[in-house]
Design a protein that fits this description.
It is a single chain. The chain is α/β, with parallel strands linked by helices. 39% of the residues lie in helices and 9% in strands. The protein has ten helices and five strands. It has a five-stranded mixed β-sheet. Strand 1, helix 1 and strand 2 form a beta-alpha-beta unit. It is globular. The mean pLDDT is 92.
Amino acid sequence: MNPFIIKEPTVISFSGGRTSAYMLWRVLQAHDMSLPSDAKVIFCNTGKEHEATLDFVRDIEKQWNVPIVWLEYLKEQPKFKIVNYDTASRDGEPFAELITNKQFLPNSVMRFCTTELKIHPITRYMASIGHEEFQTFAGIRADEPRRVVKLRETLQAPLATAGVRQADVQAFWKSNSFDLGIEFRDKVTPLGNCDLCFMKGGNQLMSIIQREPNRAIWWAEQEKKIGGRFSKDRPDHTQMMEFGKNQTDMFDQNEETIACFCGN
């Protein structure tokens, strides 16, 4: 059975990255290049995505003629709002509003940012259109065994079922007429998802801060606002900005980036 065939209400969770976009392509391919009526492609914008990610989501809509629902967290009811490429937040506004509301910073133990900024808005949106129950397609590949085991209890992973690996995804985009405008390096897309997500390896974060120090300003502002750190076992972002001006070896170069529901 083709794992990309959809026969029930389904959310195709689109992170704005190459893997989940490739998953969407395989779904379209399995349905004669059209989106099944029971399926919704949903992109949840935190406001901390790279601008190229937003461009990529817009390009997918246009190039593949597929409707994508853009959602953002909202403090007030209905706890989400529908936006588009032009109106989407670009300076972390939904994420900052969530932190202000919680008066607490998310971290590797309490990743409420994923729950509140992505999972709950999707659930509330689907309920608003009459789907209290639905399945979710997530961009988890066959070469991500830990994610497959962890997330398969609640999510469908058609790419993993089909044996799709990172090399397959990269080969597809190299032969495609357009691509995500973010560098793929050392088997990852460093600036994918939230630009300085605390789940990224310390050395990866340091590399980003050294190349684009302004990206750390928002994160430093949130830490100052709450009086804490996103990662208790790391310096705060103000310190990392200062250290990054002259140093390169603040973290273990082999520290792994941990992926979550955000995808890649």
